[in-house]
């Protein structure tokens, strides 16, 4: 089929409209975050008369009432911990499943099907357990849950990557007298790095964006950004400073957005692979 | 497999197994026990068994069924809408995306934002005084609907969900569309088949497994929706936007009714199993 110029123009138009509409919340919030209070009060239009970074400065000036840096640190630490732990647990297990078939029949289905089960089902017992062992409102405790949430995807991604890896290199290493553990750390690990990296990034993004368990299991010390941002609204009662609120949401969105865009090629592929094969 | 390999492989899967036993099996056991017990914060360690009272309470609770109904309707409507929109965009934009693949990044963006933050963003966007949408509605039509009122809340929330997750359907379906072998297309072109017939007889049948999969994934995810709905309307809008996840959350945190919350969880778990079994049957039949 010859592409007619008119048809191509229509396609471009649809693409631009779709891109704007689908990204509308981010665009609109970004615009509001760059407006001054008086401008927000006078007009809600999408055009900024006098852009200002005042709202971003203001977030960090109000740390006595609303400690954004603290929330950001909590998210970084618990999401980072959860993401790393999910890889640490899944990588050896995926290797044992793919190469030795251990647990492939029972463990793999349990973990992958976990994706279809709303985890809120386990939230109440987990809350009560956390209460007993004093893990409520800790980054460590939240990180453990984030790991649980990401295990299915991470395990699928790593298992797929290991399946596609040639067996011959490992067999050669074995002939050279290396044991399973040495092969795993010195031969398989370097080869699997790309897959591990994209799993880690995806796991981090999903962990950062988690809300439900953050809401349930943290109250002050370990509150992540997603929950902290919602505090901004409740804390200010009826008198929300909308410019600052918008800046808070943009700041809270930037880390996953940045990581995601930097690695979009790998992530896009992994996201789809995880979805299709899961 | 040699004995040494066997030992090694058990060592390799031991950590994840232990983790799942603590984080999944133990909570499940507690769920099951508490669901048939009389339990409160005072007797957590020694609940009294009482049979199926909690379940009866849940099943007789009108709020439970309306939450269930909301979640089902929400999941169905959004999954279908995302599928149709995603399918259209994937096929219509394929010639552009195939040449300028970096444009795909634009469609990854919405999925990178936390649904909770998206919900909060809409609190601003839909706000009657400072919100962008009411501003332009008033400017162009002279009036603005109350987006989060009980009669509009369902559709407002559904549109928000669809806008965030249509890119997911778009990207999955685009890669499936791109995987249709060139020879099939060329053969069809040689036969002089029209574009619409090509879609109907070649592209759609080829993509059907992916189409169904996309629908299931989106249905499951939207069925348990919590974040964006909770931050936008909570159980507000006259309780009309209580999803099943919000129902369980509130039974526990607002009403402190552990037994009821846990029984509702078990019912949800059973339902999820039913969906899962249907899904797996389906996947097997396709293979």
UniProtKB/TrEMBL annotation, chain A:
Location of the protein in the cell: Cell membrane
Pfam families reported for this sequence: BPD_transp_1 (PF00528)
The ABC transmembrane type-1 domain, residue ranges: 72-263
GO cellular component, one term: plasma membrane
Membrane-topology annotation of the record: Multi-pass membrane protein
Record key words, sorted: Cell membrane, Membrane, Sugar transport, Transmembrane, Transmembrane helix, Transport
Transmembrane segments: 12-31, 71-94, 106-130, 142-162, 183-208, 242-264
InterPro entries in the cross-refs: BP-dep_ABC_trans_perm (IPR050901), MetI-like (IPR000515), MetI-like_sf (IPR035906)
Domain of life (superkingdom): Bacteria
UniProt GO BP: transmembrane transport
Keyword Ligase: no
CDD domains the record matches: TM_PBP2 (cd06261)
Similarity-based family: Belongs to the binding-protein-dependent transport system permease family.
Protein name: Multiple sugar transport system permease protein
Lineage: Bacteria, Pseudomonadati, Pseudomonadota, Alphaproteobacteria, Hyphomicrobiales
From TrEMBL, chain B:
UniProt subcellular location: Cell membrane
Domain of life: Bacteria
Tagged with keyword Transmembrane helix: yes
Gene3D superfamilies in UniProt: MetI-like
An example Gene Ontology biological process: transmembrane transport
The ABC transmembrane type-1 domain, residue ranges: 68-279
Transmembrane segments: 12-34, 74-93, 100-118, 154-177, 229-249, 261-283
One GO cellular component term: plasma membrane
Keywords linked to the UniProt accession: Membrane, Transmembrane, Transmembrane helix, Transport
Membrane topology: Multi-pass membrane protein
Family: Belongs to the binding-protein-dependent transport system permease family.
Protein's UniProt name: Carbohydrate ABC transporter membrane protein 1, CUT1 family
């Amino acid at each position: 089929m010859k592409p007619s110029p008119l048809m191509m123009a229509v396609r471009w138009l649809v693409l631009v409209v779709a891109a704007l509409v689908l990204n509308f919340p981010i665009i609109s919030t970004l615009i509001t975050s760059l407006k001054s209070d008086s401008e927000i009060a006078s007009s809600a239009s999408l055009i900024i008369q006098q852009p200002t970074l005042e709202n971003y400065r203001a977030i960090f000036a109000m740390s006595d009432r609303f400690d954004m840096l603290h929330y950001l640190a909590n998210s970084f630490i618990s999401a980072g911990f959860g993401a790393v732990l999910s890889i640490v647990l899944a990588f050896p297990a995926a290797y044992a499943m793919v190469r030795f078939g251990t647990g492939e029949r029972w463990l793999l289905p349990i973990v992958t099907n976990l994706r279809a089960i709303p985890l809120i089902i386990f939230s109440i017992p987990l809350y009560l357990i956390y209460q007993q062992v004093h893990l409520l409102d800790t980054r460590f405790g939240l990180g453990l849950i984030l790991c649980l949430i990401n295990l299915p995807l991470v395990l699928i991604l790593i298992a797929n990557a290991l399946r596609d890896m040639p067996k011959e290199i490992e067999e050669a290493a074995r002939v050279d007298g290396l044991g399973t553990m040495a092969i795993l750390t010195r031969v398989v690990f370097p080869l699997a790095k790309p897959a591990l990296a994209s799993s880690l990034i995806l796991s981090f993004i999903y962990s950062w964006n988690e809300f439900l368990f953050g809401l349930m299991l943290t109250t002050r010390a370990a509150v992540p950004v997603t929950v902290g941002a919602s505090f901004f609204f409740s804390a200010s009662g009826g008198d929300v400073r909308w410019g600052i609120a918008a800046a808070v949401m943009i700041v809270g969105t930037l880390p996953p957005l940045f990581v995601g865009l930097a690695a979009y090629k790998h992530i896009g592929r992994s996201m789809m692979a995880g979805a299709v094969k899961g | 497999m040699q004995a040494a390999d066997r030992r090694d492989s058990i060592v390799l899967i031991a950590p994840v197994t232990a983790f799942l036993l603590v984080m999944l099996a133990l909570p499940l056991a507690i769920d099951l026990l508490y669901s048939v017990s009389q339990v409160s914060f005072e007797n957590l360690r020694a609940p009294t068994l009482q049979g199926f009272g909690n379940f009866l309470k849940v099943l007789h609770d009108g709020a439970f069924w309306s939450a269930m109904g909301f979640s089902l309707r929400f999941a169905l409507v959004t999954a279908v809408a995302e599928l149709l929109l995603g399918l259209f965009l994937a096929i219509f934009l394929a010639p552009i995306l195939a040449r300028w693949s970096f444009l795909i990044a634009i469609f990854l963006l919405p999925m990178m934002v936390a649904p909770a933050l998206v919900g909060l963003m809409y609190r601003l966007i839909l706000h009657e005084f400072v919100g962008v949408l009411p501003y332009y509605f008033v400017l162009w039509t002279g009036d603005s609907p109350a987006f989060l009122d009980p009669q509009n809340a369902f559709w407002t929330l559904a549109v928000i969900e669809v806008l965030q997750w249509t890119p997911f359907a778009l990207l999955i379906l685009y890669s499936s569309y791109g995987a249709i072998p060139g020879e099939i297309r060329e053969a069809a072109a040689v036969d002089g088949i029209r574009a619409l017939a090509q879609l109907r007889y070649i592209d759609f049948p080829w993509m059907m497994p992916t189409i169904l999969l996309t629908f299931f994934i989106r249905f499951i995810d939207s069925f348990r929706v919590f974040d964006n709905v909770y931050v936008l309307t909570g159980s507000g809008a006259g309780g009309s936007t209580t999803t099943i996840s919000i129902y369980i959350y509130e039974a526990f945190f607002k009403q402190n009714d552990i037994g009821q919350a846990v029984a509702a969880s078990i019912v949800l778990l059973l339902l999820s199993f039913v969906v899962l079994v249907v899904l797996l049957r389906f996947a097997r039949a396709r293979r």
